[in-house]
Amino acid sequence: MAGALSQAELQSILEFTVALARKAGELILEGSEAIRASGAVDEKKNSVDLVTEYDVRVEELVKRELSAQYPTFKLCVSSRHSDLLLHPSATCAMPPL
Fold it and tell me: Rounded to whole angstroms, how far apart are CA atoms 26 and 19?
C-alpha cells in the first residue's frame, strides 16, 4: 500500500483491526477468568511485575496477525517503540493493556 490510502482500503483496515481487537479481547477475558479461578485476584508477583502472560500473548497475537495481513505496516507497542510514531510508513500503535 504505497501512497495515500483509498476509502475502500481504509474501510478494509478498519474491519480487520476491529476483528483483531475482538480476538485480543477474547484472549484478555480468558486471562481474566484464569486469574480469577486461581484465587490470586488481588496479588501480583511483585510490585514491578505489571506485564502478565496474557499481555504478552495478546501482543504476540496482534504482531502475528497484523504482519500477516499488512507486512509493510509498522507496529508501535506501548511506549517501547515511540520512534516508530514518526515513521513515514503506515504505523499501528498498540497502547498498554
Answer: 11
CA dist., res. 72 & res. 1, Å (int): 8
Digit-coded pLDDT (tens) for 6-62: 999 999 999 999 999 999 999 988 888 887 787 665 545 554 444 578 888 888 898
Please check whether residue 74 is in contact with residue 59, taking contact to mean a CB–CB distance below 8 angstroms: no
Query: Residue 32 is placed in which grid cell?
Result: 481474566
Give CA 13 to chain center in angstroms.
14
Outline where DSSP puts E strands in the chain.
74-77, 91-94
Tell me the pLDDT band of 64, cut-offs 50, 70 and 90: very high
Q: Indicate the DSSP class of residue 95.
A: -
Strand partners, 94: 77
Count the residues in the chain: 97
Side-chain half-sphere CA neighbours of 30 within 13 A: 11
